[in-house]
Amino acid sequence: MEYLTSPQEMQYWANEQRRVGRTVAFVPTMGYFHQGHLKLMEYGRSRADRLVVSLFVNPLQFGPGEDFARYPRDEKRDQALAQMAGVDVLFLPAPEDLYPVHFQTYVTVEKVTQGLCGASRPGHFRGVATVVAKLFNLVKPHWAIFGLKDYQQYVVIRQMVRDLNLDLEVVGRPTIRENDGLAMSSRNVYLSPQERGSALSLSAALKTAQERCRAGEHRAAILLDEVVRRISGQPDTRLDYARIVDPETLEGVEFIKDPAVLILAAWVGKTRLIDNGFLGGYPDCPA
Ligand code: PAF
After folding, report:
1. What is the assigned CATH class of domain 186-277?
2. Which of 69, 91, 98, 127 sits 20 to 30 Å CA-CA off 135?
3. Cβ 185 under 6 angstroms from ligand 1
4. Catalytic site residue 37?
5. CATH 3.40.50.620 is held by the domain 2-173
6. How many angstroms is it from 244 CA to the middle of ligand 1?
7. Which part of the chain has CATH 3.40.50.620?
8. Nearest-CA residue for atom 1 of ligand 1
9. Alpha carbon of 277 to ligand 1 centroid (Å)
10. Which pLDDT value is given to residue 287?
11. 58: Cβ below 6 Å to ligand 1?
12. Taking the complete model, does pTM exceed 0.85, yes or no?
């Protein structure tokens, strides 16, 4: 595995792959790898001649008072895991290389960033879209692979790629869960044992809504009522939002007749968790 840190080296490597006709898959990450990241890498490995993983905790996507400073980091462990996953290049840029002093260009995706996490975390998706656009220009992948746990992020990136005619395909892959249903996330490490118990209400509520929808309850308000009750009833837990939305536009749906996504975010103690699942007689994941 090669370690690259400078944007210039990364771009040179990418140009070289294109020149000799090799395909490249790319998994952008903020590190602190778990099974979810490793599954994305495994998929990327199987899809292309070369696999690039970036590890960069992007300051631009964290708001004031969010967890940028304490975001979990363990570069040595990540390097070992990436090596075992068959990664060809681990790209570890420094913040000052991606955002030099006079940096002043940002990518704003409009409608699909306005609600849900975009409403609770102003500026977050501008930070995500900007860094991902830069990484795409450096890695020049044929496929960029994202976990569907961050469903809104996936929609935002797909929209950006379409709108800017970026020459790559965005691939969404299923959420990986712990045995008890908790969606894997680097932030799960913040949870105390009691909070972890409360956090299970997110996946449990999603599962119940999926089952009720399959059994014929297609009214969004009824399904959401139970989700709200179930999550808000947990100790130390505050629901941020729970909505049933169109998978493309992220606009609210009142009656589920086409595929829809139940998407939610909740604070458990000081940790903000997100989760989602498909409803409407469709597989839990479109990928
Ligand atoms: O999903 C993440 O880990 C980040 O938002 C991403 C896509 C790597 C951009 O910083």
Report:
1. alpha beta
2. 69
3. no
4. yes
5. yes
6. 24
7. 2-173
8. 29
9. 20
10. 34
11. yes
12. yes
Q: SS3 string of the chain?
A: CEEECCHHHHHHHHHHHHHCCCCEEEEEECCCCCHHHHHHHHHHHHHCCEEEEEECCCHHHCCCCCCCCCCCCCHHHHHHHHHHCCCCEEECCCHHHHCCCCCCCCCCCCHHHCCCHHHHCCCHHHHHHHHHHHHHHHHCCCEEEEECCCHHHHHHHHHHHHHCCCCCEEEEECCCECCCCCECCHHHHHCCHHHHHHHHHHHHHHHHHHHHHHCCCCEHHHHHHHHHHHHHCCCCEEEEEEEEECCCCCCECCECCCCEEEEEEEEECCEEEEEEEEECCCCCCCC
Ligand 1 in reach of 145 Cβ (< 6 A): no
Q: What is the pLDDT of residues 182-207, one digit of tens each?
A: 999 999 999 999 999 999 999 999 99
CA of 34 to the centre of ligand 1 (A): 14
Assess whether the C-beta atom of 131 lies below 6 angstroms from ligand 1: yes
30 alpha carbon to ligand 1 midpoint, in Å? 6
Which tens digit of pLDDT belongs to each residue from 26-83? 999 999 999 999 999 999 999 999 999 999 999 999 999 999 999 999 999 999 999 9
